[in-house]
Every structure is written in C-alpha cells, then in structure tokens.
Amino acid sequence: MNNLKIVIPVFxxxxxxxxxxxFTQNEIVDEQIPELESSSKxxxxxxxxxxxxxxxxKLEKPYMPKEREWITSGPxxxxxxxxxxxxxxxxxxxxxxxxxxxxxxFLRPINSTxxxxxxxxxxxxxxxxxxxYFTPDLEIMEGICSAxxxxxxxxxxxPGTEYLGLEFKVTKEIVTGYEKRYESVC
Length: 186
What we know:
By secondary structure, the chain is α+β, with helices and mostly antiparallel strands. It folds into two domains: 1-58; 71-182, Macroglobulin (MG2) domain (Immunoglobulin-like, Sandwich), CATH 2.60.40.1930. 31% of the residues lie in helices and 29% in strands. The protein is built from one helix and nine strands; from the N terminus they run H-E-E-E-E-E-E-E-E-E. The protein has one helix at 2-58; strands spanning 71-73, 76-78, 82-85, 89-93, 101-109, 115-124, 130-134, 152-157, 166-174. Strands 3-9-8-5-6 form a five-stranded mixed sheet, with no helix packed on it. A four-stranded antiparallel sheet has the order 1-2-4-7, with no helix packed on it. A hairpin with a 2-residue loop joins strand 1 (71-73) and strand 2. The protein is elongated and about 100 Å long. It starts with a helix and ends in a 12-residue tail after the last strand.
C-alpha cells in the first residue's frame, strides 16, 4: 500500500511532464512555420534569378562579368581593373594593424590630369573585417549628370598611409538592363 502511494504521485508527475513537453514541442513547431513560409520566398527569388538568367542569355549582348583579378596595395584589394557602368566595385581590406584607421578615397576623372573625390569608405583595424562595395552612379547633387562623367581611369588613394594608390577603368559599356540608370539627369 505504501508503494502505491509513492507510485501514483510519481506517475502523475511523469504524466504532467510528458504533457508539458508535448505542448512545448507543438509551440516550437508552430514557431518554425514562418521559416517554412520564408523558404517559399526564397524559392520565389530563386525562380526570379533563373528567369533573369534566361532572359540575359537570350539578349544580343548578354552580360557576363569578367573574372576577378584582385588589384592590391598592402591589405587593400579591388576585384577588377576594368568595370562596365552598372557593375559593383568590390573592395576587400585584409589584415590591418589594430591601430590602423583611415579612409579609402575613390577619385573619378575630370580630365586627363585632374580628379574629383567621388566616394569615401572608412577602414578600422580594430573592428571586424572591412569589405565594401559601391556602384558609380549619376548624382544630381554632386553635378554628375551624364555617364560620360563616370567613364575613364579612376584612382583609389589611402590618405595618411604609406600604401600606394590603385587604378581602375570604367568603360562606356553599360550592364544590360541598366541603360535607363545612366540616361542624363541634368
């Protein structure tokens, strides 16, 4: 009889624990359902990418990015020496000293001898890895009104450091599908 008094409460406690565990598992499954919904969004994006790829391949001049070359100066790297209008310029900054801080300045050509600051990116060796990208675009506020003002040999400088500058070229060719983006705006 004494054993029965111990067994019944233990059985009830175990039953309660099993029921609570079962309910929490159902809640966990319910919380995971939004992830399944987001996977359908991922599928939609993948379908769009496939569709865009097929459309690109059908074009008279399909866009095919060039191989990356990684032009370097110290820890600073840009991925190519030549870009079409509309292509992103990727910048990677490898191992910096903890105390190294500064900025990377991109200078667009004004003419064959003069340049104008176009874009500045900070770097900081005490932070995480420094990776950036940007796309040269028309900017009314900066007075860059036509694609011709972006075309030419650009310079990349690292003011306040000993690192040598880099150079790359932006060509007059436009990435297919970006033609409207480079129509004159002023």
